[in-house]
Amino acid sequence: MLALRSLFYFLLSWPIKLLVRCKIIPDDIFGAYKDTAEQPVFYIVRHQSASDLLALQKACKEMRLPDPLSTVTVKGEQFKRTLCLEKPTALLLGRTNNHTDALDQGLKLIKLHASDPKLDAKLIPANLVWGRRPTVEKNDANVGTLLADQESPSAFRKFFIVLFLGRQTLVRFSEALSLRIIANDHGTDKTRARKLLRVARFHFHRQTVAATGPRLMHRQQMFTALFANPSIKRMVSDEAKAKKISEEKVKKQALAIMDEIAGDYRDSMIRFGERALSWLWNRLYKGIEVNNAGKLREVAQEGHEIIYVPCHRSHMDYLLLTYVIFHEGLVTPRIAAGINLNFWPAGPIFRKAGAFFIRRSFRGNRMYSTIFREYLGLLFERGYAVKYYTEGGRSRTGRLLQPKTGMLAMTIQSLLRGIDRPLTLVPVYIGYEHVMEVGSYHKELSGSKKKKESAFGVIKAIKNLRNYGRGYVNFGEPINLNQFLNDNVENWRDAIDPIDPQKPSWLTPTVNTLAHDVMVEVNKSAALNAVSLSALILLATENKALAENELEELLTFFLEVQRKAAYSPSLTIPKDNAKEMIEHVKELNKVTTEKDAIGNILSLNNSAILEMRYYRNNILHTYIVPSLVCRVLMHHPKISHDQMLEQVTSLAAIIKGELFMWQTSDEVSKQAESVLETLLALNMVKRSKAGFWTRVEDTDVRARLSVMGECVDETLQRIAIVTTLLSRLAPISKSALEEQVMTIAKRLSKLNNIDAPEFVDKKAQSSLINTLKELQYASTNEQGYLADGVTLKELKEVVSNLVDIKVLQSIAR
Predict the structure, then answer these.
(1) Of 78, 177, 165, whose CA–CA distance to 126 is shortest?
(2) Which range among 9-13, 31-35, 152-156, 281-285 shows the weakest confidence by mean pLDDT?
(3) What is the pLDDT of residues 98-121, one digit of tens each?
(4) Which of 46, 114, 641, 705: CA 20 to 30 A from 689?
(5) Which among 176, 194, 180 is positioned nearest to 44, based on CA atoms?
(6) Which is it for the CA torsion 719, 720, 721, 725, positive or negative?
(7) DSSP-derived secondary structure for 486-516
C-alpha cells in the first residue's frame, strides 16, 4: 500500500512541477525557537490532497525545510510529517466522512510531550491558496469562480483548479507552534487536541480571506445597494423637491455619478498587472525593498479592515504599492484615484484593477458628496481593503504635505454605522532614488501650468524608461481606529447610528489629530538611501561639490550616526558601504564627475541641485536632531550638557510640526544624548568632568560637524527671520508679519542662492508663525495683533548664535 502511494505521488509530481508555481510567504517561521536541529518538525495543512502536499513539498524544498511527505520517528513511533485537517469531497458520492487522522496523531504527539520533558516538536501551519481568486455573489457565479471555490474540492474540481490556477499558488508558512508549550499550558487531553485543530481551521480561513478578499460584489450590485441606502434615498427625495423634477430624473443623475466613481474590480486584471509590473520593475529598478510587512500581515490575519494611507510622491505609487501588497500575500486594495487619471486607456485599466475615482472638490455638490461617502462606506461594510492618499495630491517638494481630512472623516463616519470589525489605518512610507515627475514638479513650482494627464503622456513616459535605482516601501505602525477613538473621544459609541450616522461635534478636531498622527507614522518609517543621503550632504556644502574621498567619509559618518542614534526604531538604513553607495549614485547620473591630478570631484549642476533638493527633503526630518547637535557644537566652543539639550529640544519643538517628526521633548533629548555619545566614541568631541562639551580641534572633525550642522541651516534662517521681525515690529497683524517674512525670505534666497521652494512658501511661513504662537513665543493682544511672548527674546538669542552673521545682517537691514 505504501509503495503504491509512493508511486502515485511520484507520477503526480511531474505535472505538478510543470503546472504549479508557488509564491512563498514565510513569516519568521521558528520565531523564538531558533534551535530546532534536534527537535522534530511537523506541518499542518487544510486538505488531505495529493496536489496540496506536492505543492507544499516544492515550497519546502525551496525554503530548505524538511520534506512534508516524509515520516518522523518520535520516541520509537512513526508519524506522518504532515497533519491534514480535512479530506476532499468524494468524486461521486459527495462528502461522506471528511475526518482525517490529524486528531489522533496530534493527541499522540501532545501526550508524548507529557512523558518526555526534553521533547519540543514544532508544528508549522502551511496554508495553500490556489489562484487567489475571490468568491462571488451567488447570482454572479460562473465556471471560473466555481473552480476557485476551494472549500474541500473534489478530485475532479481540484484537477481543473491546478490546471488553470496552479501558476498563481500562494504558500504561506506561519510561525511554528511549540507542542511543548501547548502541552504545558493547555494540557494533553482530547479536548485540547480538538481545540488546536479548530484554531488551525480558523487560522487558515482568515489567512485565505486576507489573500483573496471577501466575497466579490460587482458594480451593478453595488449600484442597487447604494440606491437602497437611507441617506441616498433621502438625498434623491430632497433633490427632486428642491429642483422640482421627478425622482427618476434625479436617480439618473445619481447613477451617472455612481458610474463615474465606482471601480470594476477584476482579479484577472490583477494577475495580468502582476506579470506586466514584474517586467516593468525589473527594467526600471535595481530592487524594491519592503520593510515591516509582517505587521501588515498580522493585522490582516486578525480580521481587521485595512485602510492603506501612504505618502504620495509619484503616479508610480499606485502601481508599486499595489504590487507589493499582492506579493506580500494579501488581497490588493480598492484605490482612491484622482479623476484626472480617468482617461483612456488608463482609466478603464485602473478601474478593473480596483481604482475608484474621486473629484478634487466636493464643495457645493451634496449629491456627489453623499454618493461618494456612501460608496466608501459600502466598501468598508463589505470588508474590502481600501487605499487613499491623505495628502490629496503628489508632493512637489519631497516633504510631506499638510493632510487633507475629508477621506479620514468619511472613514470615521463609516465606523459610526456600527461596522462589526475593527478599522485599521496602515501608514506607508514610499521612497525612490528617482522620481520621473521631478522635472515637471519644478516647472509647476516655478509657475508653469500643470499638464493634464493623457495617453500621449503615458507613451512618452514608457519611451523614457531607464534605470531608476531602488524603490522603498516601508509599512508603519498600524493605527486601530476603534482604539484611537477610545483613547481620544469619550463615549464616542453613543454616536453610532446604523441607518444614518451624523457628524458629531467631536469629529473635526479628532480627525485633525488623526491626520497628523498618520503623517507622523509615515515619516517615522522613512528609508535612507544612497541618493537622498548624497543629496543631503552635497547640498550642505558651500559649492555643492566634494572630493569623492570626502563624500565617502561623510557618508560613513552620516550612516554611523543613524546606526548608533537612530531617528526611530522603524527607520531603515542602507546596508551598503559608502563606496558602494557613491558608485550607485554615479550610475544613476545624479552627480557630475570631474577628474584632476588628485582624484575625482563630485558636484551638482544647477539642474541637479533642483532635483536633489527633492530627495534631500524625503529624509531631512531624520537628521534634524543630529544636525542641531552639530550646529550647537560648531557655534559654541564650550557648552554644558543641560544647555545643549535645552537648545536642541526647544528648536526641535518648533521644527517638528512642519516636518511631522514623532519625538516628544524627552525623545529628542534621548536622541541628542545618543548623538553626543556617538561623537564621543568617534573621538570628535570631548566631555569634561564638569559636564561641558567641546569639539576636538581637528580640521577633518570640524569639516564633518560643519556639514551635518549645515543641514538645518535654512530652517534656522526662517526661524531667525520670524523672531527678528516679531521682536521689532510687534504688535503686528499676522497677515502683515507673513508679508514681511516673505519679503525677507525672497531676498535671502537670492543673496544666498537658496532654490528650495519651501524657503519662500507662504504656507510654510504661516505654519511657523502658528507654531511660535502655540509654544507661547508669540501672543495675541486684545486687538488680535501678534505680540512677542516672554520667552521670545531667549529664543532669538539662541537662534542668532546659530545663524551666520551675514544672514543676520541681511535680516537687520
Answers:
(1) 177
(2) 31-35
(3) 678 899 999 999 889 888 888 999
(4) 705
(5) 176
(6) positive
(7) HHHSTTGGGG--SS-----TTHHHHHHHHHH
Q: Which residues contact 513 (CB under 8 A, 6 or more apart)?
A: 488
The answer to whether the beta carbons of residues 296 and 385 sit under 8 Å apart is no
CA distance 449 to 221: 40
Q: Which residue has the cell 508555481?
A: 21
pLDDT at position 445, please?
A: 76
Task: Give me the residues paired with residue 546 across strands.
Answer: 602
Question: What average pLDDT does range 373-390 have in this prediction?
Answer: 94
Q: Give the pairing of strands 685-687 and 692-695.
A: antiparallel
Residue by residue, DSSP assigns 81-135 as: SEEEEEPPPPTTT--S----SHHHHHHHHHHHHHH-TT---EEEEEEEEETTPPP
Strand, coil or helix: 243: helix
Confidence of residue 794 (pLDDT cuts 50, 70, 90): very high
Grid cell at residue 230:
437611507
CB 317 within 8 A of CB 430: yes
State the virtual CA torsion across 197, 198, 199, 203 in degrees, nearest 10: 100
User: What is the model's pTM?
Assistant: 0.92
Instruction: Tell me the per-residue pLDDT of 142-187, one tens digit each, with 9 for 90 and over.
Output: 545 545 455 667 777 788 888 888 888 999 999 999 999 888 887 7
What's at 187, amino acid-wise? G
What mean pLDDT do residues 675-696 have?
A: 96
**Cβ atoms within 10 Å of 723's Cβ, excluding its own:** 25
Kindly report, residue by residue over 403-418, the tens digit of the pLDDT. Answer: 999 999 999 999 998 8
User: Count of CB atoms within 10 A of residue 553's CB?
Assistant: 17
Q: Which is nearest to 174 in space by CA: 58, 40, 329?
A: 329
The residue whose grid cell reads 456600527 is: 418
Phi–psi pair at 812, nearest 5 degrees: -65, -35
Burial class (CB in 10 A: 0-12, 13-18, 19+), 372: buried
Q: Higher confidence at residue 598 or residue 92?
A: 598
Cα gap 799→716, rounded to integer Å? 7
Helices and strands per DSSP (H, E), number in the chain: 33, 24
Half-sphere exposure of 72 (CA within 13 A, CB side): 21
Give Cα 28 to chain centroid, integer Å.
20
What is the distance between the alpha carbons of residues 157 and 429, in angstroms, rounded to a whole number? 42
Rounded distance between C-alpha atoms, residue 491 and residue 54, angstroms: 54
Within a 10 A sphere around the Cβ of 498, how many other Cβ atoms?
10
Per-residue HEC secondary structure of 600-650 comes to: EEEECCHHHHHHHHHHHHHHHHHHHHHHHHHHHHHHCCCEEHHHHHHHHHH
Query: What is the band of 1 on the pLDDT scale with cuts at 50, 70, 90?
Result: low
Say how far apart CA 403 and CA 515 lie, in whole Å: 6
Q: SS3 of 423, please? A: strand
Q: Greatest CA span in the chain, whole angstroms?
A: 98
Among 134-138, 676-680, 730-734, 745-749, top mean pLDDT goes to 676-680
Stretch 298-326: mean pLDDT, rounded? 93
What is the share, in percent, of the chain residues with pLDDT greater than 70?
93
Q: Are 538 and 612 in contact (CB under 8 A)?
A: yes
What number of other Cβ atoms are within 10 A of residue 505's Cβ? 9
3-state secondary structure string across 171-213? EEECCCEEHHHHHHHHCCCHHHHHHHHHHHHHHHHHHHHHHHC
- How many Cβ atoms from other residues are within 10 Å of residue 762's Cβ? 12
Q: Which residue type occupies 738?
A: E
User: Residue 544 and residue 332: Cα distance in Å, rounded?
Assistant: 43
pLDDT > 90 fraction of the chain, expressed in percent and rounded:
64
With both helix axes pointing from N to C terminus, report the angle between 507-524 and 481-488 in degrees, rounded to the nearest 10: 120
- Evaluate the omega torsion of the peptide bond into residue 117 and state whether it is cis, within 30 degrees of 0: no
For the beta sheet containing 692-695, the strands, ordered from the edge strand earlier in sequence to the opposite edge, are 639-640, 692-695, 685-687
